[in-house]
# Entry
Amino acid sequence: MAGMVIIGGGLAAGSAAQTLREQGYDGEVTVIADEPYTPYQRPPLSKGFLKGDEGLDAVILHPDDWYREQRVDVRTATAATGIDVVAHTVTLADGSTLGYDKLLLATGATPRALPIAGHDLPGVHMLRRLDDSKDLHAQLAGGGKRLVLIGSGWIGMEVAATARQLGNEVTILERDPVPLAVALGDEMGTVFRRLHEEHGVDLRTSVNVERIEGTDRATGVVVDGETVPADLVLIGVGAVPNTAVAEAAGIEVDRGILTDASLRTSAPDVLAAGDVANAMHPVLKQRLRSEHWANALNSGPVAARVMLGQEAVHDAIPYFYTDQYDLGMELSGYAPLMKDARLVTRGDVGGREFIAFWVADGKVVAGMNVNVWDVNETVQKLIASGARIDTAALADADVALDSLVPA
# Structure
């Protein structure tokens, strides 16, 4: 029998399978996961799980019993190698084929390679998969190691915080002048820079990484002629969507698998969700590909409903959170609109208890609450309203935030 087939082992795949059953679908559901684990979520891999504060139960979405009870056939350690969109079949690595009525591609992304000498030495890591986090934890848990991070994106900064809290020396090497400036701009990126420097991280910006040194394993990173000693190196310079299987099947791909607002691809009965989908956002009226947790959480269920013939669009406001040392943060908003927006803050930026707003054409297009809680829902309402907001009131902590949301 055919049925619903999901390729992927992450949150988008797992949330889609769950939604199919919650929506009453009684047919075959098969999940093809190339890792030896049932579907899991990734945020703990650079935070609590890496630190050792959280176990597998914080990572794995459902216990094995759940899949048995729900009659979801999860084929772990199994790779999908081909798709025939005409025959409606998926080819697996062992040569077998699997028919489908509807197919969801939730194949995720792969860490971007850094093509420098020494990148493949033992002791050089990337962090994407559960086993990557396990390997890093084994080396960092005892403290006393010298970790060099190449790149200061969210993964790198979270790992840096975790490694420092475990008692390791940390150096971050970043080619741009300010860490996280691509995501947040210079002023907010500087907040995170100071946070890490206050916790003893050697954060070097505007530098050029030349190579990784070592014979049998990595022993250092050469940056602008200087060798920074290292017991282990983590490369975190972004990720590339896993589109190869889709592209080989003739499905339209451009910086991700292209979909409409309902996550349908160019192939009949094939959808894409999560990190790999470059989806048309119905509010932005442009394509948006997000690698954040909330995108996987929200897009999987949308895809499942569409697979069942329901009307659904993926129109959620993008959301992201991070925990670093004693800083907790939530960010909601549209990254493409943040670039040229005006930054407005309320609260104590220096004390790291504040809310930052990005305002374009008088409208809030993004908001970030740092160590200020129970406001994200209101921030999202401000964004969703599309209303012009008095920026003086927005910056005034004495003005109730929810009073600025149009009735």
Notes: The mean pLDDT is 97. The chain has three domains: 4-110+239-307, 124-235, 326-404. The radius of gyration is 22 Å. The CA atoms of residues 165 and 325 lie 7 Å apart.
